[in-house]
Amino acid sequence: MTHRLLALTVAGFAILAPMTSQAQGLRPSPGTGVATPPARLQPEVQRQADYIVAVVNSEPITNNEVRAEMQRAMQQLAQQRRPQPDSKQLARQVLESLINQKAQLQLARESGIQVDEAAIDLAEQNIARQNELDVAELHRRLAQEGVVLSQFRAQLRDQLLLTRLRERDVDPRARVSDLEIDQYLREQQNSSPATQEVNLAQILVAVPDAASPVQIAALQARAQRALGRARAGEDFVALVREFSDASDSASGGQLGLRTADRYPPLFIEATQNLAVGDVSALVRSGAGFHVLKVLEKKSAGAPAMTVTQSRARHILLRVSPQLSETAARDKLNEFKKRIMAGQADFATLARENSQDGSAAQGGDLGWANPGMFVPEFEEVMNRLTPSQISDPLVSRFGVHLIQLTERRKATLNPREQREAVRALLREKKLDETYVSWMQDLRGRAYVEMREPPQ
């Protein structure tokens, strides 16, 4: 399959984070995840004589269903350039997955969970937007790939049913208490240095191999001046630019978040008892004199406590019967031309035209941590450099023009750190809870396996 649309084919249905009140039109709203279309049945699959391979609470699963799902899985593995599994093993896994799905769909319907046509329409629109298409073009691509539209929408309905069932039955069981967060933080504080990840920044005053004692003393004095100013609170990045001979000076001397065994033992010995923000004593290595600052410490697998924040502003035009998506793009393209020509001011245009709550602030969205905006918005914003303006982009909320104003490294405050830990623990709990819930549901279902006809 050559189209980007069907190259994205995956199983499942994304469950997105709930919308907050800030900067409406940018945060994802619940139950509007982006599904992707099913793989096309190949002619040789369709020509196979069909038969029942299993019955789940009186509902059959057919051989063609299993073969079609196997083909979808193999196509996905091929797109990811991963090795193909043994066909018999894959068939068993696919059949078990279909049994679980059938049991869950039956429970959803018996519980009265419903999905209306408007929700399916919205999911269909999300797929089109994800693939930079309109709905009419999506339908045309699906037809080209041999996907029947009614079957496609039926699969979307099933995915929405499964999402809502899991939101109702699984999500409430994955709550994380404050006591669990406290325990996790205590464990991180008591973890051994060998299991920690550290991000250090350095100033290196290089010492040539053939340096004389007088030269070495002068270079040591230079490094000592840098150390004194760093400990006095001067901006470390500015000191790196002024003093450092290392090739990492363009990144503020940052060496990156890595485990202790990937740092020179000298660096770990000098910093293992330091807190984040502290500066080590002078370290002498074969390369020269090092001044080390601890930027971040965390246990492997723990959420990062330092994040890259972005500050952006945008103009949002909502698509309506009076304003088509094409017309909105054209209007925003015209705004971009005027701004770049110095004929208009971004903030003024945002106040006059943007259709969300940020308009009064000239489109300013404030400082944002990663994950605060919907993916289609954030992906474009992350590619911008400060002052750069994007081309118009389509999100599930309308058409946007984005300007990145600033970017910075920031340490999460204690409340944000606790929320990051809560999200990490909840994600783990969700996985464990879902497996347990699914096994319980599977155990209560009547499943009859059928032998193929002779």
Tell me briefly what this model is.
By secondary structure, the protein is an alpha+beta fold.
Helices and strands, with pairings:
Layout: H1 4-7, H2 43-47, E1 52-56, E2 59-62, H3 63-79, H4 87-110, H5 117-130, H6 135-144, H7 149-169, H8 178-189, E3 196-206, H9 213-231, H10 236-243, E4 254-259, H11 265-271, E5 283-284, E6 288-299, E7 306-317, H12 325-340, H13 346-353, E8 364-368, H14 375-383, E9 393-395, E10 398-411, H15 414-444, E11 447-449
Helix pairs in contact: 3-4, 4-7, 5-7, 8-15
DSSP strand content: 15-25%
> In what order do the strands lie side by side in the largest sheet?
4-3-6-5
Q: Give the count of helical stretches.
A: 15
Q: Could you tell me the number of beta strands?
A: 11
- Pairing-aware structural class of the strands and helices? alpha+beta
Shape: globular
SSE sequence, one letter per element: HHEEHHHHHHEHHEHEEEHHEHEEHE
Q: Please name the fourth-level CATH homologous superfamily of the largest domain.
A: Porin chaperone SurA, peptide-binding domain
Mean model confidence by pLDDT: 82
How much helical structure, as a percent, in the residues?
A: 40-55%
Gyration radius, rounded: 28 Å
CATH class descriptor of the largest domain: Mainly Alpha
The largest β sheet comes out as: 4 strands, antiparallel
Number of domains: 3
- CATH A-level architecture of the largest domain: Orthogonal Bundle
Low-pLDDT parts are 1-25, 27-47
